[in-house]
Structure formats: C-alpha cells, structure tokens
C-alpha cells in the first residue's frame, strides 16, 4: 500500500489529522519551552563571565530576576502543552470510541468470539502514548540540531563532540527498535492467549469446581503463562540492556564534554562560564534522544496497536444508514443460500431455499448438527451469507442498517445470555425503558406474574449473565426481550428448551397472538407441541433441506418414513413413551 493510499483510507489517521490544530499548538508550546531551555545556559554565561568579573550585585539581581521570569514562562509552557495533550486524548476517544466499539463488536460476532476487548486496549494504548510524556521526546527532537548549532557557535570541537554522542544515542535507539519489534509482538500474542484461556475458564467456574477439573486445567494454563513469562523476561532484559547502555553513554557524555571544555579553557579558547554552559547545553541537546531510547518500547507497543486498529477499521467499515422510517413487513426469502461459521471453510448450510411470508410460523426440525442454529443466525444477520441471497421485504439484508432493522427483529439464541442490570433493562434491550412495552412483552411471554413475585419487581437486578436466575427464568426473560417492541420478524432457537408446562403454554399462547397480528416467525425446536401452530415445516439434514412444505404433508412424510402412527387432528406428534430405567 502506498503512503498516499494509506493516509486516504485510514480512519484513525484521518482522526489524528483532524486534531492538527491541537498538534500545532502543542508544537508551538514545545518551541517556546525549548527556546527557554537556553535560559540556564545564558544565565551561567552571565554569572561566570560578567557578574563574577564585575562583582556587581545589581547586575546579579537583574539577571536573576530575568531568569526567574523565564523559568515561570517555561513552567507555563510545559503545563499548557501537558494540559492540551490531555484534552487531545479526550477528543481522540470521542472521535474513535464509537467506531472502535462497533468494529470490535462486529469482529467478535463475525469471527466467533475472539477477544473484542483487545480493540479497546489498543485504542487506550495509542491514546496514552500520544497524550503521555513520551510524546514530548518527538516534539523536542527537532531542537537537537539547534542546540548542537549553538555548541558549534561556542566552539566547533564542542559541536563535533555533541554530534558524535548524538549518533551513538541514535544508534542505540535504532538497535532497540530492531531488537524489540518481534519480541514485543510475540509477547503481546502470548499474553493474549494466556488471558483468553483464563477468562474462558472463569466463565465456567461452577462446572470446573463441581467436577474437579481445576487440577487438570491448571497445567495447560501454566504452559501458556510460562511462555509469556519467558518472552516477557527476554523483552525486559533487552530493554534494560539498551537503557543501561544509553545511561552509560549519557554519563560519559557529561564527563567528556566537561573534559573537552576544560581543555579549551586551558588553551585560552573558551571561558570558564562557557565551559559550564556548554556542558549543560550538550546535556539538553542529547536529552530528547535519550528520552526516545527510554520511550522506544512504548512507541513499539503503540505502533503495533495502531496497526491492529487500522486493520480492524478497514475490515469492518461503518454500516450503511437506512431511513429510520422504513418499516419491516417480515417477508423473508432465502435463495440458494450457503453459509458457514466464522473461521470455518466448509459450508454448514447449502442450497437453502425458503420463503416465510408475513403471518406465518415456520418450524425447523432436524438432528443435532444439521445446521438449524446456523439458519437462525443467518436469518438475523449474525453470520454472513457466503453465497446466495437473503431478502427482507425484497431487499438484501445488507441494505438494512442494524439501527433500523434491530428493533424490528426478535431473536432468542439457543444459549440465552442476559446482561448485568435489571429485569426491565434486559427486556427493553438496554434502551430507554418503556414500561408499557416491557409489561406487554412480559405478559406475552407469560413472565409478568413471575416478575411481580420478585422483591423489586421489574427493577430486580439479575447479576452478571443472569446468574441469580434459573435457566427457565433466563429463557423467559430472553423471550420477552425478543418480543419487546412488537417486532415484525421473530427467530427463536429452542425457545422451550428450559420451560415447564406453564411456560410452554405461555409460549404457545404468545405464538398464537403473534400469528394473528401478522408477524413472521421461524422457530427451531425438538418438541412437538408447537407443531400444532405451524404453517410450514422444514427438516434439515447435513446442512440441506430434506423435507419442506405445509405442516400436515411434512409430518405425514416423516411418520411414513419412520412407520409411526398418523398425527392427531391438531397436528401434534404423539407424546414420547417413557423409557425403562
């Protein structure tokens, strides 16, 4: 990629360029601060070459007052640029926070989980580097040639010594870059693997504790952690070696520059005041390079985070914005759809043709692993279609924005996940809680009476992931969340898996009401009760439609194939017989 193309396509770079006024003001304050850094050198020249020679106390007073004023101006310049950097960091968060949030979430969905929090960590690392004290080294670095030029004005030999030490410090910085880039990348990946493994196990801590799995899982984590510790020790050791060499070079520079100055004083080519001032000036000239060496590890980390954010935003561009007035009727078409899970090459669904008109209930049957849950995810746009068309009201799914489509779709995944908050907030999808809509959704799901029995009713906190509720309660709240806002399309994946008889009766009642209101429903289930309401039945096997058609026809074909009695007039399958113990 060319540099011009990189800058034209880079969202994060454009965000940084939009802050160019702030960067310009910071550069101006840096210029003022660096110019005022010459004040101590001039003060020493005046003290040694004028005050001590003339022994004039008034001159000493005036010079001291002037230097105090310049030091106050220096303090103001340093404070102003530091404060402006903080404000720049806040504005950078505002510019990129929402995009990084949505792109990181989209990557977590499209790529099967991963580590969505990494994107926020990367943004924080970039912001902290760009608005932290390390960035001052880059603003002060252009002034190093100016300080060296002043040293040449004092004496060419002093300038030559400063150039030699500047080259040595620059070589150390280059060496640090060459030797730390690959170890830093490997360290970040090892740390990510260790944290991801640990977080995954903590999410299932109850099962691990109950079945005594901890002793078997610890060695695996210990291997990952040992690898991380090994890489961390190597990276730290290299950083410390480079820093030690840089420190020794700095001390050598201070002593040798003083020795060169003393030699020039002995030869009568330099005054004693100029010797002391040159030593201070040379230290100041090389300070930005020394700071650069110390900050190099942070720069490498921020650079890696910057590139990851670039890739994230490029792979997950902003979603199209549709008209908010656009209303979904719920006419769903799948035409030769192929789809697979993120990170998997082989398709799970193949040659999928399906039409679910408004006001219909489509029941999807099939053995485990046949692609039923994949079909549900495809219908709501969670997993993308790799081939074929998914049309909603005659428009491709990509023509709808999540902001427009999301409130008009109800989705209950197979594993119901709730979030830390109250019952009302979870049902309202964490938007502004509309009490009437929350109660209507809860009543439709048969949840209202159960909620009223809680101490705080709808304001009852449910804990992280709903851990304070039973599986059936979580599923009924998830169903109410899917029903919230009267959506036009409902996709329910095993909605009755954890329901008792009362809960399933409430579910069937809700399905009946939704059909009467013209809603489109697609339900994945293994239980026969809902078949009484089905308009069409789809049977999947190995990712393809094996049977499809009106309910009675498909059930007749299934029962004929399995040599089972005919279905009851209501269309429900006979209840399974109890198995011997």
Task: Describe the protein's topology.
Layout: H1 3-9, H2 11-17, H3 20-36, H4 39-54, H5 57-110, H6 117-130, H7 136-140, H8 144-154, H9 156-202, H10 205-210, H11 214-266, H12 272-315, E1 332-339, E2 349-356, E3 361-365, H13 372-379, E4 385-392, E5 395-396, H14 402-405, E6 409-412, H15 423-427, H16 435-444, H17 448-452, H18 471-483, E7 489-493, H19 501-516, E8 520-524, E9 536-541, E10 544-550, H20 551-562
Parallel strand pairs: 3-8, 3-9, 6-7, 7-8
Antiparallel strand pairs: 1-2, 1-4, 4-5, 9-10
Helix pairs in contact: 3-5, 4-5, 4-12, 5-6, 5-12, 6-12, 8-9, 8-12, 9-11, 9-12, 11-12, 16-18
Structure, explained:
This protein is of the alpha/beta class. It has two domains: 305 residues, ABC transporter type 1, transmembrane domain (ABC transporter transmembrane region fold, Up-down Bundle), CATH 1.20.1560; 231 residues, P-loop containing nucleotide triphosphate hydrolases (Rossmann fold, 3-Layer(aba) Sandwich), CATH 3.40.50. The protein is 61% helix and 10% strand. It contains 20 helices and ten strands. The protein has a six-stranded mixed sheet, with helices on both faces. A four-stranded antiparallel sheet has the order 2-1-4-5, with helices on one face. A hairpin with a 2-residue loop joins strand 4 and strand 5. It is elongated and about 115 Å long. It starts with a helix and ends in a 19-residue tail after the last helix. The N terminus and C terminus are likely disordered.
């Amino acid at each position: 990629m060319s540099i011009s193309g990189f800058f034209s396509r880079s969202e994060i770079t454009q965000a940084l360029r939009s802050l160019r006024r702030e960067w310009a003001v910071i550069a101006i304050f840096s210029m003022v601060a660096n110019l005022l850094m010459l004040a101590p050198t001039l003060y020493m020249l005046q003290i040694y070459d004028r005050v001590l020679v003339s022994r004039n106390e008034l001159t000493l007073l005036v010079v001291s007052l002037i230097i105090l004023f310049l030091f106050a101006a220096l303090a103001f310049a340093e404070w102003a640029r530091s404060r402006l950097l903080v404000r720049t960091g806040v504005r950078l968060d505002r510019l990129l926070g929402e995009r990084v949030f949505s792109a990181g979430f989209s990557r977590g969905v499209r790529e099967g989980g991963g580590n969505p929090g990494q994107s926020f960590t990367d943004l924080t690392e970039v912001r902290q580097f760009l608005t932290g004290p390390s960035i001052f080294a880059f603003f002060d670095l252009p002034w190093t040639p100016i300080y060296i030029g002043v040293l040449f004005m004092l004496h060419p030999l002093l300038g030559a010594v400063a150039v030699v030490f500047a080259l040595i410090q620059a070589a150390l910085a280059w060496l640090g870059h060459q030797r730390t880039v690959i170890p830093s990348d490997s360290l970040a990946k090892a740390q990510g693997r260790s944290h991801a493994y640990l977080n995954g196990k903590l999410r299932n801590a109850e099962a691990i504790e109950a079945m005594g799995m901890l002793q078997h899982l610890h060695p695996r984590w210990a291997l990952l952690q040992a690898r991380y510790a090994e890489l961390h020790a190597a990276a730290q050791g290299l950083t410390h070696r480079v820093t030690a060499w840089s420190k020794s070079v700095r001390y050598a520079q201070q002593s040798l520059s003083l020795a060169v100055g003393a030699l020039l004083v002995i030869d009568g080519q330099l005054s004693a005041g100029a010797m002391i001032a040159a030593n201070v000036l040379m230290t100041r000239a090389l300070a930005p390079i020394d700071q650069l060496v110390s900050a190099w590890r942070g720069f490498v980390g921020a650079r890696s985070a910057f590139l990851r954010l670039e890739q994230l935003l490029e792979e997950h561009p902003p979603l199209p914005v549709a008209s908010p007035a656009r209303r979904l009727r719920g006419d769903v078409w799948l035409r030769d759809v192929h789809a697979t899970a993120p990170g998997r090459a082989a398709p799970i669904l193949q040659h999928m043709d399906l039409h679910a008109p408004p006001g219909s209930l489509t029941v999807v049957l099939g053995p485990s692993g046949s692609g039923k849950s994949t079909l549900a995810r495809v219908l709501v746009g969670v997993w993308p279609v790799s081939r074929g068309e998914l049309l909603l009201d005659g428009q491709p799914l990509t023509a709808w924005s999540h902001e427009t489509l999301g409130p008009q779709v109800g989705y209950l995944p197979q594993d119901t996940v709730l979030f830390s908050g109250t019952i009302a907030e979870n049902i309202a999808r964490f938007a502004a809680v509309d009490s009437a809509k929350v109660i209507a959704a809860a009543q439709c799901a048969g949840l209202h009476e159960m909620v009223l029995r809680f101490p705080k009713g709808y304001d009852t906190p449910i804990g992280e992931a709903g851990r304070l509720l039973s599986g059936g309660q979580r599923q009924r709240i998830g169903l109410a969340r899917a029903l919230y806002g009267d959506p036009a399309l409902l996709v329910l994946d095993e909605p009755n898996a954890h329901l008792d008889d009362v809960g399933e009766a409430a579910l069937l009642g809700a399905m009946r009401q939704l059909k009467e209101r013209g809603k489109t429903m697609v339900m994945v289930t293994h239980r026969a009760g809902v078949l009484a309401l089905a308009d069409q039945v789809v049977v999947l096997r190995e990712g393809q439609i094996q049977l499809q058609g009106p309910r009675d026809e498909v059930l007749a074909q299934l029962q004929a194939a399995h040599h089972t009695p005919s279905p009851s007039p209501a269309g429900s399958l006979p209840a399974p017989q109890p198995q011997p113990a």
